[in-house]
UniProtKB/TrEMBL annotation:
This is Uncharacterized protein.
């Protein structure tokens, strides 16, 4: 009854207690335990979990059922991301203004971590974006391929947080099938994963939500477990799945270390010759060699490749045009040509990163 938002006066059901009680009265403290059904595994889960925490607290204050209450979150600002400690814990406190719906969530009563506004919409249909279309299909991916790519970028999604069943990228975003199992945290998190997967295609940094302009939640469309079609339009910045729509999601790069890169220590460096009899063409040999080189060096995306000097009559001069052509395939580099030197035959340049 309390979880449903009701506040019954249980004391009215029993005769009044007269103090002090007798010495043989049993203690009730052993009958009260903490409810640990809700567990938060990642910083991303904490972002969606804090929305659910605010939603539940709002409904309890209004004495209404969360399963029957549509809400709109506006101007959400993440002031600090939470990392779940392996040992110990922390306390989250939710403060909601009754009239305006402005709320704040604090950690241990000191640190502000999330702020925004929660309201009940007067006209729910008007809260949703009316234009949610994407271009024709371009490339389809399975769930294994989606989460394999996210894992390569540094994200660690497991179990119920792998909610994307399939995903199709388009010229204006993506379309995915998301599994709804009754867990709001996992479902909303899956919608955010669609944005991270699409917008972070050219970056291998880890991004977390920083700001949400508007989030609409309609629980009436989530009565039974089912697979739900979700659409993300990166032009309008809107992602929608079932009765949930997120508008104006902004993310920021984090400094989370990926693959324990800070703990690596170079002990020695040895050159190992690479021979492959299947590489019969010069273009294949140069392209594979450059791929191996780029995979084993760390180059910030802001750097660019530039031809800095040339050697006349070099034995490697015949590779100049091949290298120039292959460099344009590497999206992490911006290739710049200087005059006709790059195009001239029998010239070979040294590549420098700036």
């Amino acid at each position: 009854m309390y979880e449903a938002g009701l506040l019954p006066k249980v004391s009215s059901l029993y005769p009044p207690v007269r103090y002090p009680v007798s010495r043989g009265t049993a203690s009730l403290s052993s009958l009260v335990t903490w409810d640990h059904k809700d567990t938060y595994l990642t910083a991303m889960d904490m972002n969606t979990g804090r929305l659910l925490l605010t939603w539940k607290h709002y409904c309890s204050k209004q004495k209404i059922y969360i399963s029957e209450t549509s809400v709109v979150f506006e101007n959400l600002q993440v002031h600090q991301h939470l990392v779940i400690p392996e040992k110990g814990g922390f306390t989250l406190s939710v403060f909601i203004q009754r009239g305006s719906g402005f709320f704040e969530i604090e950690m241990d009563g000191v640190t502000l971590i999330l702020s925004g506004q929660i309201v009940q919409p007067q006209n729910l249909k008007q809260e949703f974006d009316k234009y949610m279309t994407v271009s024709p299909d371009v490339f389809s991916l399975t769930a294994q391929e989606v989460y394999s790519e996210l894992k390569n970028r540094g994200y660690q999604y497991t179990d119920q947080f792998r909610g994307i069943l399939d995903l199709t990228t388009t010229q204006k975003g993506c379309v995915a099938t998301v599994n709804w199992t009754g867990n709001w945290c996992c479902f909303i998190d899956s919608l955010i994963q669609m944005v991270l997967f699409t917008d972070g295609d050219n970056s291998h940094d880890i991004y977390l939500p920083l700001e949400i302009r508007k989030a609409v939640i309609d629980p009436s469309q989530h009565k039974e477990p089912r697979d739900i079609k979700a659409v993300y339009n990166n032009i309008s910045g809107v992602v929608r799945g079932g009765g949930v729509e997120i508008q104006g999601l902004k993310v920021s790069a984090t400094k989370i270390l990926k693959n324990n890169e800070a703990s690596l220590k170079l002990e020695s460096m040895t050159f190992i010759s690479h021979t492959n009899p299947r590489l019969k063409l010069t273009e294949q040999f140069v392209e594979v060699s450059m791929q191996i080189a780029f995979e084993n060096i760390s180059i910030p995306t802001t750097r660019k490749a530039t031809i800095v000097d040339f050697e006349e009559e070099s034995s490697l001069g015949r590779f100049t045009s091949v290298v120039k052509h292959i460099l344009k395939k590497f999206h992490i580099l911006k290739f710049h040509e200087y005059g006709a030197l790059v195009l001239a035959p029998k010239h070979f340049g040294r590549i420098a990163f700036q």
